[in-house]
Design a protein that fits this description.
The chain has about 450 residues and is α/β, with parallel strands linked by helices. It has twelve helices and 21 strands. It folds into three domains: about 10-70, Elongation Factor Tu (Ef-tu), domain 3; about 75-340, Rossmann fold (3-Layer(aba) Sandwich); about 350-435, no CATH class. Helices cover about 30% and strands about 25% of the residues. α2 (about 155-165) runs parallel beside α3 (about 180-190) and α8 crosses α9 (about 380-400). The longest helix is centred in the last third of the chain and has 23 residues, at about 350-375. The termini are far apart.
Amino acid sequence: MATKAFQKIYTKITAITKATITLKADGVGYDELATVNGRLAQVVKMMRDDVTLQVFGGTDGIPTNAEVTFLGKSPTLKVSDQLAGRFFNAFGDPIDGGPAIEGSEVAIGGPSVNPVRRKQPSELIATGIAGIDLNNTLVSGQKIPFFADPDQPFNQVMANVALRAKADKIILGGMGLTNDDYLYFRNVFENAGALNRIISFVNTTENPPVERLLVPDMSLTAAEYFAVEKNENVLVLLTDMTLYADALSIVSNRMDQIPSKDSMPGSLYSDLAKIYEKAVQFPEGGSITIIAVTTLAGGDITHAIPDNTGYITEGQLFLRKDSDIGKVIVDPFRSLSRLKQLVAGKKTREDHPPVMNTAVRLFADAANAKTKMENGFDLSDYDERTLAFAKEYSNDLLAIDVNINTTEMLDKGWDLFGRHFTKDEVAIKQEMVDKYWPKA
């Protein structure tokens, strides 16, 4: 990054930790970028003339007389239509061998959209995954995380959502991806011929962890360009927000800040909220929808990261492996989309709400039957039928490898009802039963 002529160079560092340096400097702004012996750094704390910078590449080998030059600006991204189909690092530099982007230079991490410029979300975001579209329908302008154990195939789910979602642009913010994960995303997008609408910002495990802190802001700055300037519907996929929070923790701990719950910084809620609150539906038609992955440590949903996330987002999607079918499903009991009623039965077929509710009720009856069976109690004929239904429901609708549209999902639901239950047992309004019950 070029520096301006006559910039002041500081050469007296007063403190060094594994991630930060501190020195006395004047005329410096918060979030301003600097170079420290050629390594990029950013101002993260200011106390009068004591300035602390996080060094993205780490501080190993940096002496106390290192040359520190402030660049007079915060991190920026050049935005234009040229972003589409490209892969970038956390600093917005191309990593796909393509040319540099030409466009307007925009500071990242700006404020969220003023509430008066927002419209209530009302447009369906279809993913092709029935466990989402049928039971936990997503709405444009929504913010929602996947909660998943680290061994769940959440990156494959995110790639599938990217390929199937009906959106004008998909922006992937990958944090702490292995090289295999990075190549997986790249190959899937290229092979599907979908690169022209996908933009990726990637931090891999080989990059310094603190660089992850830039990825969500880079992704959302690009999203705002397409949503505001082009009136496009943009879907932002962020994975993994737990690794983002871990990077926050690294920096705050090395700045000797007193940690909060689970060793997280006290600012965790605000740090997460400033990302998720960028989700918006504009009256003019553009929108930003955010789907993020939050991995759980040992399935602990009470950990500070998922706990804070749950207060900010409009529901969650919970992945788990179903022991009966051996596949990963979107768990209907632990998943919730708080905005689904805005589109279910309104932007989808009229029978969507009753089919969704009835299927989950029968799935719950199957869970009760399974408990009875495990405790040695006799099963009724109805219990046996609910267990058979649950197995097919999981395999044909809840499994993440299912890829059908919402009309096909509803038809499949009616087909399962007709094969396992009577019309009285499903307890759906007669007019709906008359219209949609499968013909013998």
